[in-house]
């Protein structure tokens, strides 16, 4: 891989400190960064290079929560530089260009530059415009090589704004230069869905409406808004989580096999799936969703405040911290199979999983026995915190009577492979440097996801209190969510 320079806008922020730099450091430790690779952090706060490196080191020590060896981090940090600049001031860009030129020259980087927009979403468009105006988006004689752009989520706040942002970005960069990041796609277990489905002979034949009763996708967080109340007030659970992570998981679980592993083929199949998700008519939106907001409760053995009492949150806020949706896919494979998506903050446990519930076996044979109703087979892909898969099936309980009890087959990534998986951000940054777009949603995927959610968002814009229920912090969400599952037949899993 050729050497490249990663320019992070928003370098003094939370994302850089907590996710980007640790991801890069892991790549460095594994020897996956190219020779000559360098990072240039940009934000307004004034830091000399050394003080910026010290900040990153302190953050890394804090995250390690135990023994931490400074030496490799210091070696990695010698490749990290800092440039103070206000990206909203057009005059800043001449100085930035000069710094980029001198860094590339000093470190023998042949002008390959990745720009990472880790600033507030409202700043994405003006940042990209100014990168273009400064002439940084195209190769020049002194800075040949590639130019790529990584854009963080949220990508827009509805269909119209996502389209406008795509237009702005694509007026400066070509689509193949743009990487819209959804870090869930960088998780090892999420990528394994693909291998599990298409690399084994026994699962794909039952992966359809003839065998699957319904699918539940859960992304639950035990934390609250963690001081990011101002951001969350603007977003809410649907924009923050469902538009990107949950719909992408749904696409991976339900898509058809692509013609090849090529980025174009894989993204094309994800898009086709998203396009097959049934649009919800405005008058039916209320039946298809439940919104919730956490009230005071208990988390991790201590009392925690209600969302409305969090810093930077309005005491009368109607922003949802929980959302559950029932969606359907109108295609030959999935017609009639409900897909339930739910996400929330301050839930009972931090867990992300996809649960495939199969149709029950006929229980005639066991009707007269002590076991009563048979449980259906269940396949669960655990995305976090314990990466793995389990399959639940019925087994005969030892003893003279015939009694069927559900038991689980477990596969754990940690036990099977003995290594920690590469952090999602590290993996995705590596793909950006390689120019591989497979794990990044393309323009139409983002817009199709927003188009699906627009009827829900419009309903709540018209009446912000609509469909909103409250749940105690530390629970599994509002009880109203149970009614979303088809006629009491299905139940939410308690992971
Ligand atoms: N944090 C997360 O866990 C997370 C997860 C997923 C996605 N994201 C997305 O990542 C982006 C960044 O989030 P964050 O949590 O890191 O935000 P943050 O902590 O508020 O950081 C924002 C950064 O932008 C810089 N900045 C603001 N105005 C600027 C300007 N005019 N010129 C130059 N720099 C400026 C700030 O530094 P100065 O004040 O020093 O200028 C700071 O470094 C957001 O789009 C967010 O939605 C964050």
What report would you give on this structure?
- With 495 residues, this protein is an alpha/beta fold.
- The protein folds into two domains: 5-152, NAD(P)-binding Rossmann-like Domain (Rossmann fold); 185-488, Dihydrodipicolinate Reductase, domain 2.
- It contains 13 helices and 17 strands.
- The protein has a nine-stranded mixed β-sheet with strand order 16-15-14-13-7-12-11-8-17.
- Strand 5 (147-151), helix 6 (159-170) and strand 6 form a beta-alpha-beta unit.
- The longest helix is centred in the middle third of the chain and has 26 residues, at 229-254.
- The radius of gyration is 24 Å and the shape is globular.
- The protein starts with a strand and ends in a 23-residue tail after the last strand.
- The mean pLDDT is 93.
- NADP nicotinamide-adenine-dinucleotide phosphate (NAP) binds at residues 10-15, 43-45, 86-88, 118-121, 152-154.
Q: What gross morphology would you assign?
A: globular
Largest sheet: 9 strands, mixed
Q: Which structural class matches the secondary elements? A: alpha/beta
Task: Indicate the radius of gyration in whole angstroms.
Answer: 24 Å
Order of helices and strands: EHEHHEHEHEHEHEHHHEEEEEEEEEHHHE
Mean pLDDT, as a whole number? 93
Number of strands: 17
End-to-end separation: 41 Å
Count of helical regions: 13
CATH class of the largest domain: Alpha Beta
**What is the CATH topology of the largest domain?**
Dihydrodipicolinate Reductase, domain 2
For the biggest β-sheet, the strand order reads 16-15-14-13-7-12-11-8-17
CATH homology-level superfamily of the largest domain: Dihydrodipicolinate Reductase, domain 2
Number of domains: 2
């Amino acid at each position: 891989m050729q050497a490249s320079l990663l320019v992070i806008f928003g370098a003094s922020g939370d994302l850089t400190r907590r996710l980007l730099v640790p991801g890069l450091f892991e790549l460095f430790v594994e020897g996956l960064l190219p020779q000559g690779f360098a990072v240039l952090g940009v934000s307004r706060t004034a830091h000399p290079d050394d003080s910026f490196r010290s900040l990153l080191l302190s953050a890394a020590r804090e995250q390690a929560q135990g023994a931490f060896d400074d030496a490799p981090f210091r070696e990695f940090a010698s490749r990290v530089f800092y440039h103070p600049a206000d990206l909203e001031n057009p005059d800043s860009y001449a100085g930035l260009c000069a710094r980029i030129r001198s860094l590339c020259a000093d470190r023998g980087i042949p002008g390959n530059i990745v720009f990472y927009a880790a600033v507030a979403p409202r700043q994405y468009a003006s940042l990209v415009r100014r990168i273009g105006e400064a002439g940084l988006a195209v190769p020049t004689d002194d800075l040949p090589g590639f130019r790529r752009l990584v854009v963080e989520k949220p990508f827009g706040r509805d269909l119209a704004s996502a389209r406008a942002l795509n237009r702005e970005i694509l007026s400066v960069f070509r689509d193949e230069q743009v990487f819209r990041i959804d870090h869930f796609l960088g998780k090892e277990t999420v990528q394994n869905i693909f291998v599990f489905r298409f690399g084994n002979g026994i699962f794909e034949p039952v992966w359809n409406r003839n065998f699957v009763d319904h699918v539940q996708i859960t992304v639950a967080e035990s934390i609250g808004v963690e001081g990011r109340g101002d951001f969350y007030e603007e977003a809410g659970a649907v924009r923050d989580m469902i538009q990107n992570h949950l719909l992408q998981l749904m696409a991976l679980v339900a898509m058809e096999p692509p013609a090849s592993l090529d980025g174009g083929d894989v993204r094309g199949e994800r898009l086709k799936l998203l396009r097959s998700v049934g649009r919800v008519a405005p008058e039916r939106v209320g039946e298809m969703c439940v919104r919730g907001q956490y009230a005071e409760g208990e988390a991790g053995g201590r009392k925690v405040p209600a969302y409305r009492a969090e810093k930077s949150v309005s005491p009368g806020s109607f922003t949802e911290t929980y959302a559950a949706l029932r969606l359907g896919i109108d295609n030959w494979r999935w017609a009639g199979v409900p897909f339930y998506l739910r996400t929330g903050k301050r839930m009972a446990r931090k867990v992300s999983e996809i649960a495939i519930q199969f149709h029950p076996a006929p229980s005639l044979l066991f009707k007269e026995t002590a076991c009563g109703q048979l449980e259906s087979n269940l396949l669960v892909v655990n995305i976090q915190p314990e990466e793995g898969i389990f399959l639940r099936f019925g087994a005969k309980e030892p003893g003279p009577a015939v009694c069927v009890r559900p038991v689980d087959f477990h596969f754990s990534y940690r036990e099977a492979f003995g290594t920690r998986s590469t952090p999602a951000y590290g993996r995705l940054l590596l793909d950006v440097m390689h120019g591989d777009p497979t794990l990044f949603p393309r323009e139409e995927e983002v817009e199709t996801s927003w188009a699906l959610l627009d009827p829900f968002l419009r309903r709540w814009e018209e009446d912000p209190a609509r469909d909103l229920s409250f749940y105690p912090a530390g629970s599994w969400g509002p009880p109203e969510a149970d009614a979303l599952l088809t006629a009491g037949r299905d139940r939410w899993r308690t992971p």
